[in-house]
Task: structure prediction
Amino acid sequence: MFGGISIWELSIILVIILIVFGAGKLPEIGSGIGKAIQNFKKASSDVEIKPDEVQENETEKIEK
Result:
């Protein structure tokens, strides 16, 4: 289902997380994971360099 993880395996993992962290910490953990994913996506889109921009930068360097 999820990359080779069945629904039963996922359920067991979630129960273990619930036991270890407790119900009170789950919203905080979920929020932290969501923010981390959002920051990762933003950083990866900021790093993308378009081929046209690279070509223009190299052309400017050569002309100088």
Q: What stands out?
A: Residues 3 and 26 are 23 Å apart (CA to CA). The chain has a mean pLDDT of 80.
